[in-house]
């Protein structure tokens, strides 16, 4: 049998590496008291109202979901004021990022994104064998001016994140507006807002949808809403752009229980507010701990923080694993990304970090 090689982009691709699961570390080290601060999950889990809504729909598992996602689109429209024909549903926002690239980019086109940005941007670009234009970061943040300059004649798509993962950095509305005015109207701009719910007062992206028909706003339910296991997200854009996205979206890419859970999660504003409060308190706790340990960190408006461990991040990561703490190396020299946990989880991490780095423990 003759071997048939994969498409060129796929053949060169290195798969995305998710955060290490608790169960895997339990098997490796025989531990049970493990804290996972690696995947930016909500330490509170999800709303009780979500659990009740999902439990009430378990009898529907044997049926296909509504391929049009009416109930979820209806809730998104009620909450954000965007009509059904401007909403695309995704199996998490990663699914949406791939849909965007497949809809608008060919192998002869280029995609622009920032250094130190979400790893999936480069993965979806390479998967379709498009040209990647990675723009050097400004410190740890997007350099929007440089990204606008980097747009080429063959550029079809720009990925930007606000706040950015894995650095937690952000930009303001005025900066974004100035950037959009520089981008040609035939270039799609994806504004990835996976963490926007944690500090919603800082940026209102939806008002830009009317001004810029080439804008796609991407959201996920995996972070602040606590639905990571169910995989559900949505994108907001013009009706024309959305029409193209839904031509290639799989008809049942979001399952029924995920949509039911998402509707309940969107409605439970008290849970989201509690999640914000826990996140802000945890952020302050980690920042104070880093300062006591003499470690620098990157200010963040997400539910994680990037810390300079002043050492080999891989070695520090492995040392923390032996202490029962899972964090995330992100390919930035001397830095680890740490998700915000509960007060007890944060305290365990800080104590473990002090031990691994041989620093004076945080009181």
Helix % is: 25-40%
In oligomeric terms, what are we looking at? single chain
Mean pLDDT: 93
Q: How far from one another are the termini?
A: 65 Å
Provide the low-confidence segments as ranges.
Answer: none
Number of domains: 2
**CATH fold field value of the largest domain:** Aspartate Aminotransferase, domain 2
Describe it for me?
With 363 residues, the chain is of the alpha/beta class. 39% of the residues lie in helices and 15% in strands. It has 13 helices and 13 strands. The strands form 3 sheets. It has a 7-stranded mixed beta sheet, sandwiched between helices. It has a 4-stranded antiparallel beta sheet with strand order 9-10-13-12, with helices on one face. The longest helix has 25 residues, at 269-293. It is globular and about 60 Å long. It starts with 7 loop residues before the first helix and ends in a 7-residue tail after the last helix. The mean pLDDT is 93. This is Histidinol-phosphate aminotransferase. It is an enzyme of class 2 (transferase). It holds the Pfam family Aminotran_1_2. Residues 32-353 form the Aminotransferase class I/classII large domain.
């Amino acid at each position: 049998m003759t071997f048939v090689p994969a498409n060129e982009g796929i053949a060169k691709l290195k798969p995305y590496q998710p955060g290490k699961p608790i169960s895997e570390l339990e098997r490796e080290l025989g531990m049970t008291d493990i804290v996972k601060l690696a995947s930016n999950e909500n330490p509170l889990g999800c709303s009780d109202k979500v659990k009740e809504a999902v439990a009430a729909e378990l009898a529907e598992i044997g049926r296909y979901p509504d391929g049009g996602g009416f109930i979820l689109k209806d809730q998104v429209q009620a909450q954000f004021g965007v009509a059904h024909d401007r909403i695309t549903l995704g199996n998490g926002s990663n699914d949406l990022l791939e849909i965007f690239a497949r809809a608008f980019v060919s192998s002869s086109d280029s995609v622009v994104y920032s250094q130190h940005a979400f790893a999936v941007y480069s993965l979806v670009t390479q998967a379709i064998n498009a040209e990647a234009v990675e723009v050097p970061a400004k410190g740890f943040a997007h350099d929007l001016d440089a990204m606008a300059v980097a747009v080429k004649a063959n550029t079809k798509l720009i990925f930007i994140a606000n706040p950015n993962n894995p650095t937690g950095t952000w930009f303001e509305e005025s900066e974004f507006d100035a950037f959009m005015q520089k981008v040609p109207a035939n270039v799609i701009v994806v504004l990835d807002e996976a963490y926007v719910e944690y500090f919603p007062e800082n940026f209102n992206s939806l008002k830009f949808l009317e001004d810029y028909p080439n804008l796609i706003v991407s959201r996920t339910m995996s972070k602040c809403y606590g639905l990571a296991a169910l995989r559900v997200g949505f994108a907001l854009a013009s009706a024309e752009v959305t029409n193209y996205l839904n031509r290639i979206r799989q008809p049942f890419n979001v399952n029924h229980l995920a949509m039911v859970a998402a509707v309940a999660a969107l409605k439970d504003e008290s849970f989201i507010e509690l999640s914000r409060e826990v996140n802000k308190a945890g952020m302050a706790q980690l920042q104070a701990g880093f300062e006591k340990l003499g470690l620098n960190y990157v200010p963040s408006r997400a539910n994680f923080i990037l810390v300079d461990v002043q050492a080999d991040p891989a070695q520090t990561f492995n040392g923390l694993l032996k202490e029962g703490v899972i964090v995330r190396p992100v390919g930035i020299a001397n830095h680890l990304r740490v998700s915000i946990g509960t007060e007890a989880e944060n305290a365990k991490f800080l104590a473990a970090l002090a031990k691994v780095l041989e620093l004076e423990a945080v009181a």
